[in-house]
Amino acid sequence: MKLKHLGWALIAVIAMGACSDSEDDGNGQEDTFDRKALLENTADNIIIPALQELSTDLATLKTSKDLFISGPNQANLDGLREKWLAAYLTWQYVEMINVGKAEEIFYSFQMNIYPTNVSDIEANIDIDMQNGTYDLTTPENNDAVGFPAVDYLLYGTADTDSGIVDFYSNDPKANANQQYLSNLIDQMDSLTTTVLNDWTGSYRDTFVNSTDNTASSSLNMMTNDFVFYYEKGLRANKIGIPAGVFSTTPLAEKVEGLYSREFSKELALEGLQAVDDFFNGRAYGGTTSGSSYATYLTLLRNNSGTSDLTGIINSQLNTARAQINLLDNNFFDQVNTDNVMMTAAYDELQRATVLFKVDMLQTLSISVDYVDSDGD
Amino acid sequence: MATFFFEMKSVITTYLNKTTSAAPLAVFRIGFGLMMLYSVIRFWAHGWINSLYLEPSFHFSYYGFEWVQPLGSFTYVIFAICGIAAFFVALGFKYRISILVFFLSFTYIELMDKTTYLNHYYFISMLSFLLIFLPAARYFSIDNLARSRFAALRLVKTAQQTTPQIPRWTIDGIKLLLSTVYFYAGLAKLNSDWLLKAMPLKIWLPSKYDIPLLGNLMEQEWVHYAFSWSGMFYDLFIPFLLLYKKTRLWAFVVVVIFHVMTRVLFPIGMFPFVMIVSTLIFFDARVQERIISFIRRVLMPLNRFFMPLPLASASLDYDEVLELSKRKQHGHTYMEITYRKYIIPVLAVFFTVQLLLPWRYLAYPGELFWTEEGYRFSWRVMLMEKMGSSQFKIVDGTGKSFYIDNSDFLTSFQEKQMSYQPDFILQYAHFLGDHYKSQGYKNVQVYVDSYVALNGRLSQPYVDKSVDLYQIKESFQHKGWILPFQDEIKGL
Q: What angle in degrees, to the nearest 10, is found between the helix axes of A293-304 and A310-325?
């Protein structure tokens, strides 16, 4: 008798547990923190505007490229370089968003893997010379496409600007060279259009409504991407690796913008600004701020009575920015002349890595690794 | 004094001679075996054998157990052996050897990499060790059937069979182990972070905002305190409430609710179910017999597979009837533990170690949560939120140096665990030192720049970065290179 009752009670409670394990929660809840607002601000004021800007920049870049191809001369080369830089700076705001379509098509792998591989580029051009075809979307070609490859094509194909213009006009392979440049830029444009269209289509709503705390929810994936970008894309790729912190000797040739030789600092500072804006929920190209990690952290830290983290992170980002500002415009030269300054900049970025990866993630209680195993 | 000892001795002897029904232990054996079988299958199905034991190129070993390593594809065989042994335990088939094999294979698996350390795995190891010495297959088991040449008949006529009696201490041993787990988990919660700051629940619970019905509650501060305090009271008192007959049923309901809640809130796998089923041991023989008769009914259709046809139709053998009636006359059959004079001392040592081990942290200076010296194997379950970031620097004889990208050597799970646990940091430092030495670097030194955040405190430097960890040998001595904790946590 008793046992039977107990059995039913057991079944009821376990069923409750099982349901709450899997059921979807709908929209009926009132949180003290509105995570949907955070995702909306991120999508509507940061991600989509940045992608739109990049798409516009790339369309302009395409026009300049067409102009240059139809008339390869110094003036058109200058115009093309200018548009390339504008798009590259905008890209710094887009690289960290590796969710949805971007993740699916390996967007950032096709846009900004550096250093670019010159022999791969030349091999592709040779294929064209022999009337073959190359597929720029394959992983093998990730280091032969995107902004770094265009950097090489616009700045690195000869020692002088006139030599570079010749590369597209008088060179025996001029046509194939033109074609390669054209294909790269067209591909960058079309990839960006694909990602943007997905956002302006259905993905935006999917994204903002996925507010659960699960490995595949928007908030968690975005947080994972954000921290990953900061640690890898910004801290390691832009500063740490060229400064040789992960190798016995500095690797100056691994800087971003290797061939243009003057933009690596600008690109790094823009990347840092993108992190800063994203963290603080600042609208792309605007000054207004919305719901963000900063506001979320402030609320959680206040609730739990722990020290202010938002302020500490912002102050550390500013310190890092000041340290980077002390560097030469061209990190390649900086590494070769005074690498201690490079590693000093790395150290300041590293301090913020700890704040993001340890303090922020602990406060948000979001796991960065998705090794799906049991806890204690 | 002499009389006292004499009386003590007689009290102990009397206690050791007390007997009780074998039913609770039989139910426990079946529940335990089946759950372990399921655990192994689940572990396998999730692909964890590969991701946790085969993918990593390097494994974190327990001090003294460096020789226990995954064995390539043979690791799957170990899991298979473990699962089969668990199933045999449930059946009570070759019980003694099966439980021994289970204990050895399970413990081997746990020792392969301490990255996966969980209190509940340790619990399973200890429990299976204890079970080796208990007569859990005395009743309702294949072994028991096989003991009679009228095995098949016995199964049909079980109703006429009485439950054998076993020494009471065998069941009390399991109760004692379970009670130790709970009680020490409760003691561990008696600290200022848990009770006065509601940490780490104040961090964990708000992140469960997406749970239906309860999601909203999880963000309320009073809920964090309520959970902290009730968790503490639960752990401390539940063993006693389960031992006391009048409160037992309600205590069990509370056990079920508590563990289902933890299952909903935290990714703790099989542990809640293991604990719920284990707790059944506290119920008396009457309840256990009902469970057994329920299992019998479920298994009844299988009867004919085990029973040769002639026997099934044959009438009762005269000898059998005689034997059964004899049994009835004699009432309960009592079973002697064969190697009792060895088993009792072994278990006495086992429980003494169990009761003392959690206190070993008192031998170390500094904050336990910070240094983790004496933290494991002490039932400190879900007690703190700790994260770290550790960046290793290799310096060679010429003064050249570089940092390590941990993902070159560790899985993200290993890196996460390594980042805030000193023994992991030290072992990894040695691994890195050896690695670069073998690559031809001379006079390798290994330093670490490490930050750790504990229970919502801002991250602090964790390890003295001027210490060459490659020169430090692992030992049970205090690790002086851990920087002091810049705060205080009061309590146990």
A: 140
Task: Check B268 against A374: CB less than 8 A apart.
Answer: yes
| CB A376 within 8 Å of CB B268 | yes
State the best of B115, B256, B298, B415 to mutate against chain A, taking most chain A CBs within 10 Å. Answer: B256
Say if the ipTM goes beyond 0.90: no
Q: Is B195's Cβ below 8 Å from some Cβ in A?
A: no
Q: Rounded to whole angstroms, how far apart are CA atoms A48 and A292?
A: 16
Q: B315: which 2 tokens?
A: 């009438």
Looking only at the bridges linking them, the beta strands covering B401-403 and B386-395 are antiparallel
**Global pTM value:** 0.87
Angle at alpha carbon of residue A254, lines to A250 and A258, rounded to 5°: 125
CB-closest option in B48, B210, B256 to A25: B210
Lowest-confidence pick of A110-114, B151-155, B462-466: B151-155
Angle at B72 between CA B70 and CA B75, to 5 degrees: 60
Q: How far apart are CA B170 and CA B173, in angstroms?
A: 5
Residue pLDDT, tens place only, B306-347: 544 434 344 444 455 445 544 444 444 556 677 888 999 999
Among B357, B458, B107, residue whose Cα is nearest residue A315: B458
Cα–Cα distance between B335 and B22 in angstroms, integer? 10
Question: Is the pLDDT at A15 greater than 60, yes or no?
Answer: no
- Using the beta-carbon criterion (under 8 Å), do A300 and B212 form an inter-chain contact? no
Q: Is the peptide bond before B200 cis (omega within 30 degrees of 0)?
A: yes
Q: Is the pLDDT of residue A370 over 60?
A: no
Q: How are the residues of chain B apportioned to helix, strand and coil, as percentages rounded to the nearest 5?
A: 60, 5, 30
DSSP letter, residue B448:
E
Q: CA A177 to CA A165: how far, in whole Å?
A: 11
Return the closest-CA partner of residue B169 out of B327, B353, B24. B24
Where do runs of H (alpha helix) occur along A156-212?
A: 161-169, 174-198, 204-209
Average pLDDT over chain B, rounded to an integer: 89
How far is C-alpha B70 from the geometric centre of its chain's CA atoms?
20
Residues A241, A355 within the same domain:
yes
Residues of A in contact with B451 (CB under 8 A): 354, 358
Contact A95, A229 (CB under 8 A): yes
Please indicate whether, in this complex, the C-beta atoms of A248 and B400 are within 8 angstroms of each other. Answer: yes
Q: Give A103-119 pLDDT, tens digit per residue.
A: 999 999 999 999 999 99
In our burial notation (b when 16+ CB lie closer than 10 A, e otherwise), range A100-114 reads bbbeeeebbbbbbbb
Q: Is residue A297 part of a domain?
A: yes
Cβ within 8 Å of residue B344, ≥6 positions away? B16
The answer to whether B287 contacts chain A (CB < 8 Å) is yes
**B403·A245 Cβ contact <8 A:** yes
Query: Cα–Cα distance between A164 and A181 in angstroms, integer?
Result: 12
Assess whether B181 and B197 both reside in one domain.
Answer: no
Identify the domain containing residue B221 by its residue range.
193-268
Question: Do the Cβ atoms of B406 and B415 come closer than 8 Å?
Answer: yes
CB contact under 8 A, B210 and A211: yes
**Pair of tokens at residue B20:** 């009780």
Query: Total domain count for chain B?
Result: 3
Contacts of B214 in chain A (CB under 8 A): 20
Cβ atoms within 10 Å of B488's Cβ, excluding its own:
8
Q: In 3D, which of A84, A93, A43, A372 has the Cα closest to residue A214?
A: A372
Question: B408 and B313, same structural domain?
Answer: no
User: How many domains is chain A partitioned into structurally?
Assistant: 2
Among the listed residues B447, B449, B459, B465, the one whose alpha carbon sits nearest the alpha carbon of residue B485: B459
B269 part of contact set with chain A, CB < 8 Å: yes
Q: Same domain, yes or no, for B307 and B456?
A: no
Burial (CB count within 10 angstroms: exposed 0-12, middle 13-18, buried 19+), residue A245? buried
